[in-house]
Amino acid sequence: MRNCRQAIDPHWRIDRIELIDNNNFREWGVLKSSIENREARPALVWFRDDLRIADNPALLTAAQSGRPVVCVFVRDTVSENVRQPGAAQDWMLHHALVELQLRLQTMGAGLVVRRGPSFDAIIDIVRETGAELVHWNRRYSGPEVAIDKAVKARLISSGVETRSFQANLLHEPTKVLTGAGGPYKVYSPFWRALEKLDPPRAPLPAPDTLINCNQNLDSLTISDLGLLPTKPDWAAGLRKTWPAGEKGAMALLQDFLRDGIKGYAGGRDFPAKPNVSRLSPYLRFGMISPFQVWHEAGKAGVPENDLEKFRKEIGWREFAWHLLFHYPDLHWRNFDSRFDSFPWRTQVPELPSWTKGMTGYPIVDAGMRELWQTGYMHNRVRMIVASFLIKHMMVDWRIGEAWFWDTLVDGDPANNSASWQWVAGCGADAAPYFRIFNPVIQGEKFDPDGKYVRRFVPELSALPDRYLHKPWEAPVEVMRAAGIKPGETYPNPLVDHAKARDRALQAFESLKRAV
Length: 515
Ligand code: FAD
Description:
Elements: H1 4-7, H2 10-20, H3 25-40, E1 43-47, H4 57-64, E2 68-76, H5 87-106, E3 112-116, H6 118-129, E4 133-137, H7 142-157, E5 161-165, H8 187-196, E6 211-212, H9 236-241, H10 245-259, H11 264-267, H12 280-284, H13 290-298, H14 304-326, H15 351-355, H16 362-374, H17 379-392, H18 397-407, H19 413-424, H20 439-446, H21 451-456, H22 465-468, H23 476-481, H24 497-514
Parallel strand pairs: 1-2, 1-4, 2-3, 2-6, 4-5
Helix pairs in contact: 2-3, 6-7, 8-14, 13-14, 14-19, 16-17, 17-19, 18-19
Bound molecules: flavin-adenine dinucleotide.
Flavin-adenine dinucleotide binds at residues 268, 276-280, 283-284, 313-314, 316-317, 320, 379, 382-383, 386, 404, 408, 410-412, 415-416, 419-420, 423.
């Protein structure tokens, strides 16, 4: 481990200077004193949604500055309008931070943990350390962009240099604009525009070593942040599901590239198939970067249609962030303002039937239970359960969005809001409002042998396949043989699909009148 004292080792300094300017002694003197200063004054790296050491340009550049590096994480629960992560995200964040801290320690540095307002915390640490350089990777949601701008302005006015980098999106939202100079609102032209840009850069290496300078700084422990559940500890299922940190992310990616990406284009819609990567929580907290995912997938030697489909899904993530950047209210404001007058039901006493996976529609219930037990839900099933809440139960999409936000380990400010709006029909490039998923047909099509439903709704496991997605049609003796008592061991359907569909279509008619 190198520390501040070793950082100003004269031999090391002279080597550097000779490298810069071998012959010019006058210049040597100037450089010598400025480097002495610079070396004594550390470079700060502010970690946020980029909890990794590889392909982290902020960290790499700080390390390459040759200065002692101070790594910081600020838990900001107070800055105005910053959306607080849900409970499952907090659980993921805790483990991501623990892993990051360990990795930084093995490289010679540590992680200073503070509570914020971020603005105050960063300015304080700069003052305490005398840092002259502050590095971060850019973020793209409105309130956080505002914080970063304020921090930058303050630091620059104090003579501190700031350096920000593109690390969490393949393309900057400011650089992908329509011919008229505005943001894209439809995915296909957005994707075509991405394809015309330079390909995403190659991932950057992790720094070999860091010069430590944070021994005497006050720091909370990660546990002090209180990110883990206490009573009840609902996280037992999560621990089994998610390997920790950057290493866990890389292991999942490699598993997926070996066993899952081949057949992705067709298989990604089937929740029991191993054709999805499950990388979303790692992308959410930056334990892996989209650049790493993009390029590793490109090296996997898989059929072109699978690779393209997978990269297009990464493209949907880019699109969601593009939308959030340009429309920062995406998580509460209808993208299509006609929906502002939509007659959502305001009293929904049966909401817990949906959250607990007790609607009587097996594919919906399996999805909601998968979410509760693992903090994740397969994309196809997310669409089905969201459609059910919005269109069968007539519940405002924001209520579903908030439930997902709290229970998903991958709860993502952009993807979650954009996807809920997409299903509701009020989002950018949304599914038409009159497309109402039939949960029975969806179940039969995408879980034909019932493997997924049987896993998460075990009380139905003995039901023959032909009734599994519509148990109410099973003859009494079949139900009895399967050990199911309708309304007791498994609920009767919460709503009748045909009636619910008509009710939703009527309500959506009101939108036409609102034009
Ligand atoms: P893979 O199929 O392996 O895809 C790889 C990556 O591409 C994902 O990790 C994700 O970053 C991105 N991606 C894939 N599908 C989509 C998509 N439809 N939209 C945007 N990006 C996508 N995704 C989140 O990351 N966080 C959320 O909070 C979230 N909420 C959603 C809510 C609803 C109602 C719906 C319908 C979708 C939501 N999604 C969300 C999108 C999608 O369901 C998940 O990204 C995907 O299921 C994650 O699984 P995976 O990593 O195995 O995906």
